[in-house]
């Protein structure tokens, strides 16, 4: 549609506005979430255009790198536990939706839109959601015509709970397999308790649940209702907003063809770094793979701990995740930077490129590279 508009303007000899081709997002770093929320809400009709990001007060031109950093910083801030939208479950190392009741779930819609935009713009995100989130995102795979129709209410099992809350799932599994008298020994009812914003609240899993004891006969029903409450009903409003945000960008018949685990890989890529594969496909400009500087570079990188390897990948590409096609899809390039060896390495994340001065020793290279990748935020023009 944007392309046709441009053609029409050219044919009528009118001034052409190339911004018509883009979803232009302009944000301030210090008001990142609120600005992003406002921009996406105002430009909802443009969500399926190519994304282009500008940070106010910075000279960087977005050829892809600024977009990657926008996603990274926004996700990092939204998923921080102090922000309160998601809680981090240490046992499983996954994030899960906070069960706070909110009338305005616009920020959850923003997270869904971000996931959709990332998928649509082929950008991988470091989001640690459990697999059942992607099952819920595809329930149903096509957005209902009725805006009030329930969404995300997937049929989930004890295995799904095990992936998020393994300790609780273990306790429920023991309840199911208990050979003694459940009612007398467990002394529990169809009422559960949850902490919300520091306050403990009680919820009945069925009408009159606080007066219905859990017995050997009805314990399976209790476990299933408890799972449905935890993974569906207790987060119904925020997840519905998240669902509609995602599908506002990715609504497509093609979604019906995907399994939940395939959607997860498209959104998150792979967390497994294979630096040997990256070395194998790396391209060089000004260097050859036998140059002492290049040999020293790979010796240093392959000896880095995982955290520094992820920082290097983020420094060079704007993301610490591996795309669906693996390292070969990165088109990683190392370019010779003919400057003083006092300089730090420079990267062009738009092109997955690192510019490396000709350092004389492995020690110097390790020191300068570590400084560069540990302090990589913000963009400028030379």
TrEMBL record:
PANTHER family: HECT-TYPE E3 UBIQUITIN TRANSFERASE, UBIQUITIN-PROTEIN LIGASE E3C. Gene3D superfamilies: Hect, E3 ligase catalytic domain, Hect, E3 ligase catalytic domains. Pfam families: HECT (PF00632). Its EC number is 2.3.2.26. Residues 43-382 form the HECT domain. The active site is at residue 350. One of its GO terms (biological process) is protein polyubiquitination. Signal peptide: none annotated. This is HECT-type E3 ubiquitin transferase. Keywords: Transferase, Ubl conjugation pathway. It catalyses: S-ubiquitinyl-[E2 ubiquitin-conjugating enzyme]-L-cysteine + [acceptor protein]-L-lysine = [E2 ubiquitin-conjugating enzyme]-L-cysteine + N(6)-ubiquitinyl-[acceptor protein]-L-lysine. CDD domains: HECTc. InterPro entries: E3A/B/C-like, HECT_dom, Hect_E3_ubiquitin_ligase. GO terms for molecular function: ubiquitin protein ligase activity.
